Amino acid sequence: MALLLLAHAAAPGRFGVVTVDHGLRVDGADEAAMVARVCAARSIPHATIALSLSPGSAVQERARAARYYALGDWVRRIDAIGLLTAHHADDQAETMVMRLNRGAGVRGLAAMRPRAAVPGHPDLALLRPLLGWRRSELAHVVAQAGLPAADDPSNRDHRFERARIRAALASAEWLDINGLATSAANLAEADIALDWAAEAAFNGVASDGGTLEWQPDVPRAVALRVLERIITQLESAVPRGSAVARWHGALARGEVATLAGIRGDGQRRAWRFTRVASHKAR
């Protein structure tokens, strides 16, 4: 609701609003209708996307994937240039702490970016203009306008990791949410620097037919990203970062190891990479 009000003040007539009803709560349809009324009063185009998700395991992850896929389709239908979401500094801090708990590296700890791609739609822009705002500041914007705001009880359901982290952060008065959000932004800059260094190092990869050869004389953080590029170059999907890290460890020990259909030979100073023939091809 805050993003709706701020966008209407900053760019009236240049955006539309879409509400996703996941079909998981009985109040979902009423909340979508409430947003539609707010938009109609301001002559803002509005659409509701109704999904039919079933409760159960990983419901929040499934809902997120389905939501973004549907939103991306909607962006295409109305021929918009991108999708804006209202993620804010508290969301950013929660994401960063969740990833800290999982041992994430620089890329993961950079958390949400102001500009990214819509999940499931890599050619569409996802913009997050409110990452510098606190949740309380956005709530004040809505209250000052005299508008209602939906209250999703799952945000306080401790069965979900994010809800547990949210409660823990709220009870830690010594913690500076803005400081965490700033750290995430700084790590995003470091992530860009690592990508730049990896791209430069990748220029040293030699190609001989279907074989790539590379001498890993760069820091480990850069080498991991070069390995990702090598996997992509050999036409394979890049696996999770932890798997790439284990692969790098094996090669650094002078071993031969295979990942994502790519055989890496670390027995020489210059590592060699080739695609492994599938069982069918054999």
Walk me through what this model shows.
This protein has 282 residues and is α+β, with helices and mostly antiparallel strands. The chain has two domains: 2-180, HUPs (Rossmann fold, 3-Layer(aba) Sandwich); 204-275. It contains ten helices and ten strands. The protein has helices spanning 2-10, 28-41, 59-77, 89-101, 106-109, 135-144, 161-171, 177-202, 220-233, 241-252; strands spanning 17-21, 46-50, 82-84, 115-118, 121-127, 206-208, 211-214, 256-259, 262-265, 271-275. A five-stranded antiparallel sheet has the order 6-7-10-9-8, with helices on one face. A three-stranded mixed sheet has the order 3-5-4. β8 and β9 form a beta hairpin. The protein is elongated and about 70 Å long. 21% of the residues are buried. The mean pLDDT is 93.
Find the structural class using helix and strand composition.
alpha+beta
What strand order characterises the main sheet?
A: 6-7-10-9-8
CATH superfamily of the largest domain: HUPs
Relative helix content: 40-55%
| CATH fold annotation of the largest domain | Rossmann fold
Overall average pLDDT? 93
C-alpha-based Rg, rounded: 23 Å
The DSSP helix count reads 10
What separation lies between the terminal Cα atoms?
A: 58 Å
Strand coverage percent: 15-25%
Unreliably modeled segments: none
Shape: elongated
Going by CATH, the architecture of the largest domain would be: 3-Layer(aba) Sandwich
Q: The biggest beta sheet, please?
A: 5 strands, antiparallel
Q: Helix and strand succession?
A: HEHEHEHHEEHHHEEHHEEE
What is the CATH C level class of the largest domain, in words?
Alpha Beta
Q: Got a strand count? A: 10
